[in-house]
Amino acid sequence: MAAERLFNVARKEFSDHITSRRFIIILALLLVISAISMYDGIGRYNDNLKSYNEQLQSMEEIEGPYSGWMPEKPSVMFVFMSMMGYMTTLGGVLAIAIGFDLVSKEKETRSLKTLLAHPLYRDEIINGKALGGIGALGFAMVLALALSLAMLLLFSIVPTAGEFAAILIFGAVSLGFLLAYFAVALTMSTVSKESGNALIYTLVIFFAVSSVLPMLGMMAGDAFAGDPPEPPQTAPMSKAVMNVAGSGYFTTSVSQTVTHNEEVDPAWQQYEEDVKAYTEKRRLINDVSNLLSPQMNFYKVAMAVTNPRISSMMYTSYGPAPEEAPGLAEALGQVWMNIAALIVFPSVFFAATYVKFMRMDIR
């Protein structure tokens, strides 16, 4: 495989993508909706910043044990939370639109055999097509981030160095999500003889892993964990424990809130342990099934980038919420499995595409 021929194929595919009417329409729609979501996010950020300044001013006037307390300043990354929902829909559609006919279109027009008549090897063709599609998606993501930064500066919001790094990481994670469905579409295009079938197969996988699989994971988690533990009748249930029994997440220690004759009630202490075990069982199956869903992986990693505190609370199944927001590195460390899944998922489909194309009978 020669690098020059490979990049020639990639350059041609990239040019075809960014000049196609389909790509331009979907990209324009993505940018418009991203701009609207950014505008909405900037408005909410300014409201939170105003509230923060008011709290800060009131804290300066308070004297006593709470005089040293400081409210948490809102981060610019709060603005990008609005983009997450649109990226999982329009972004996925854009990725599918780029890849579903890359190979099947060549089969239908019988131009693949003519293409191979040139001094090109099969691996150069399929790798060049993949690189061209990846370049087009990267181009779309750069435009989306550039538009976001321009809107921030337009509203006099200047990100810090750490926030700028977080924005770049958010863009990289979003690109990884787009590559997941581009890889699926490219695989289906290679397997199918017609572009229509490739599109149908890709959409089936898209809805299966984005909607059906997480739902089945929740059902499997409930079935695996069984019935929730029943609270004891030896003492009235505290409000904190009732919240845990209903949601399975976040509570203070029962041993600190429920006592009997000024001593820890053994029955409620056992109930606390049973609820913790029940919650962990539910989350185990649910988290494993979510690893197969690019949407869920993107959501968790993007949440760790845009709002580390909420992300940390999602992974704190029991115990009080953290008093201080974790750093970006710490938040990403909690979602390392989701990051790995975003890398493995498209890699598997790219490998399947490569093997299929190299063994494909072209006549």
Map the helices and strands.
Blueprint: H1 3-19, H2 21-61, H3 81-99, H4 104-108, H5 111-116, H6 122-154, H7 161-191, H8 195-225, H9 239-247, H10 254-257, E1 259-260, E2 263-264, H11 266-290, H12 294-306, H13 308-314, H14 328-334, H15 336-359
Antiparallel strand pairs: 1-2
Helix pairs in contact: 1-6, 2-3, 2-6, 3-6, 3-7, 6-7, 6-15, 7-8, 7-12, 7-15, 8-11, 12-13, 12-15, 13-14
SS-derived structural category: mainly alpha
What's the rounded overall pLDDT mean? 79
State which percent range the strand residues make up.
under 5%
Weakly predicted, low-confidence segments: 65-69, 236-262
| Total of helices | 15
Order of helices and strands: HHHHHHHHHHEEHHHHH
Largest sheet: 2 strands, antiparallel
The number of domains: 1
Total E-strand runs:
2
What does this structure look like?
The protein has helices spanning 3-19, 21-61, 81-99, 104-108, 111-116, 122-154, 161-191, 195-225, 239-247, 254-257, 266-290, 294-306, 308-314, 328-334, 336-359, and strands at 259-260, 263-264. With 363 residues, it is mostly helical. It has one domain (3-359). Strands 1-2 form a two-stranded antiparallel sheet. It starts with a helix and ends with a helix. Residues 65-69 and 236-262 have low confidence and may be disordered.
Features of this protein?
363 residues, mainly alpha, two-stranded antiparallel ribbon, 15 helices, 1% strand, globular
